Amino acid sequence: MSNSYSLMVHGGAGALQHIKHEGNEAKFERSICGILEQGRNILEQGGAALDAVEYCASLLEDDPLYNAGRGSVLNEYGEVEMDAAIMRGLDLSAGAVASIKGIKNPISLARQVLEHSEHVMLAGHGAMKFAEFQHIKVWPDHYFITEARVKQLEEAREAGQMILDHEDSEEPQEKFGTIGVVARDLHGNLAAGTSTGGIVNKRWGRVGDTPVIGAGVFADNTTCAVSATGYGEQFLRTVLAKTIADLIDFQGLNAQEAAAAGIKYLVAKVNGLGGVIVIDRQGQCAAQHSTSGMIYGWIEQSGVAHHQLASPV
Ligand code: GLY
Question: What pLDDT digit, counting tens, does each position of 79-96 carry?
């Protein structure tokens, strides 16, 4: 056993001024700190990083503050369509689901794919068939859809664009609410998980980086665990999570250096918007973002829990 555990969670990156304006800062702080302490309970008792990641991600999915599970953003038909992935750093085993509906905890369905299927990713109808096979309940639409998301979709429709169209807009609407968790347990095992409703007013069938291993999520015990949040297409094109792991592998960087170099690469190559959380194999924690803010929290090497909200770049 190694002598410490580390845990990081994020609740998305973007322009977070609206959180302050709406007086929601304290809600986010309570949520992030509470979830970190619940994850700590698993890790300090010798629990697996993969279990801590699944559990913390499911708590974030259950909280309508975030764009994942309940409270996910709506697609162009006003529906919730979700993506999630989870990865174990010990053996690079992974499970992912894309374009699923009615599943309360997509991260747990992704875990089932990892544990009980011979595949890495299941999408749409096939993923739902698999869920049925695993006796996972389908929840009604009203569980997922919140008033705030209906209003947000109406605004996007009125503006005649998906929120991902911000590249052409003078005032980018940076709101990327993907959630993610990375952990290192007392055995030195790393794990990562990411879950999202995607982007507001997205086209039917659009899948971002979240369920794509190496783009939105990656874990390898010999390097690091990464979870990303941001404009999915840009993270797909730069394979960002694996790029960060490669920076550690081939250039010997630590978590902080690799996160900074990864986001620098994202910006240099595709002018990318988003952020990452990273725990390296020593249990060092790092976060970096190219958006004006990011919601995240961390417990480094069994220490006290910290959180960060709407911090400057
Ligand atoms: N990063 C989440 C998405 O683009 O779907």
Answer: 999 999 999 999 999 999
DSSP state of 199: S
From the CA of 197, give the closest atom in ligand 1.
5
pLDDT band at 159 (very low <50, low <70, confident <90, very high): confident
Pocket flag, ligand 1, residue 214 (CB < 6 Å):
no
User: Is residue 241 in some structural domain?
Assistant: yes
For residue 164, is pLDDT > 50? no
The CA distance from 124 to 99, in Å, is: 5
Q: 123 in a domain, yes or no?
A: no
Residues in the chain: 313
Is there a domain that residue 278 lies in? Answer: yes
Q: How far is the CA of 122 from the centre of ligand 1 (A)?
A: 17
C-alpha dist (Å) from residue 310 to 10, 127, 152, 307? 12, 35, 20, 10
- Number of structural domains in the chain: 1
pLDDT band at 154 (very low <50, low <70, confident <90, very high): very high
DSSP string, 79-123: ---EEEEEEETTTTEEEEEEEE-S-S-HHHHHHHHHHH-S-SEEE
Quote the percentage of the chain above a pLDDT of 70.
92
DSSP three-state, residue 55? helix
pLDDT by residue (tens digit) across 11-27? 999 877 777 667 778 88
**pLDDT surpassing 90 at residue 108:** yes
CATH number of residue 266's parent domain? 3.60.20.30
| Amino acid present at 272 | G
d(CA 30, CA 48): 24
In a domain, 138, yes or no: no
Read off the tokens for 191. Answer: 């794990």
Quick check: CB of 178 below 6 Å from ligand 1?
Answer: yes
Domain that holds residue 259: 6-91+145-308
